[in-house]
Amino acid sequence: MESETMVLLSSREIEKMRQAGRLAAQLLDHLEPMVKPGVSTLEINDEAERWTKAHGAHSAPLGYHGFPKSICTSINHVICHGIPNAKQILQDGDIINIDVTPIVDGYHGDTSKTFFVGTPSPVAKKLVEVTYESMMRGIQAVKPGARIGDIGAAIQEYAESHGFSVVRDFVGHGVNTTFHTAPQVPHYGKAGKGKKLRQGMVFTIEPMINEGTWEAKVLEDGWTAITIDGQLSAQFEHTIAVTDSGVDILTLPD
Ligand code: MF3
Ligand code: CO
Ligand code: CO
């Protein structure tokens, strides 16, 4: 992950981020009907690439530090950064996170959701619901004067209260004309610790929550991160801005 001095965005720059974020959210909505048994993750990737270009944008993941595809598709025990593949066919009962980042006029809109393929198991359904709510609690902790640690504490407290664990190895990140920049935003931690939030900060909140242990390992492909115990992992992601009084979610479809 690159790091640099944290920048504060002007309201004009935040509107550019919102345009990118809106397209990202609309792309997820566009892809959702493809999430069905029998569809390959490469088919979803290729439709994402086609649609993104048709909307005058391009896909930040493609070629990013050598990543070979346009989106990330992370199924079941894959935590994040799964690579779309023609041989990987969605099956009834799977959960799949689709993570998209179109670049619109230089600005990145970074968002992801976990979808059910057909009918989920009870534990898969609970994990996905708890992961979404944990992201929302993290977002609700954001306001000027709050601390980065308040976000992770809210997420961790909620996820662990349901018996799940928080991935440590991947964090939220500042995002603007650069894909990954300061600050780092852990999804675990202590309230009152870390950098103070200020109006104009823009970053992602993207908790990865595991059914079992939080430990991750990366496969030989150099990208695919999986749970070491083979149990499920879910994730949701929004890009947000700190406002004068609270938080503004930039990755909403309208
Ligand atoms: N979109 C991912 C994130 O939320 C990053 C994907 S980088 C890639 O930060 F190279 F794997 F595509
Ligand atoms: Co993302
Ligand atoms: Co991100």
Task: Explain how this protein is built.
- The chain has 254 residues and is an alpha+beta fold.
- The protein has a single domain, classed as Creatinase/methionine aminopeptidase superfamily (Creatine Amidinohydrolase, Alpha-Beta Complex), CATH 3.90.230.10.
- It is built from 4 helices and 17 strands.
- The chain has helices at 11-31, 41-54, 122-140, 148-161, and strands at 58-59, 72-75, 78-80, 95-100, 102-104, 107-108, 111-116, 165-166, 172-174, 181-185, 202-205, 208-210, 216-218, 225-227, 233-235, 238-242, 247-249.
- A 3-stranded antiparallel sheet has the order 1-5-6. Strands 2-4-7 form a 3-stranded antiparallel sheet.
- A hairpin with a 4-residue loop joins strand 16 and strand 17.
- Helix 1 packs across helix 2 (41-54) and helix 3 packs antiparallel against helix 4 (148-161).
- It starts with 10 loop residues before the first helix and ends in a 5-residue tail after the last strand.
- The model has no long low-confidence stretch (mean pLDDT 98).
- Residues 99, 101, 110, 112, 237 line the site of one cobalt (II) ion.
Features:
254 residues; Creatine Amidinohydrolase; three-stranded antiparallel sheet; binds 2-amino-4-trifluoromethylsulfanyl-butyric acid; aminopeptidase; hydrolase; initiator methionyl aminopeptidase activity; EC 3.4.11.18; Methionine aminopeptidase
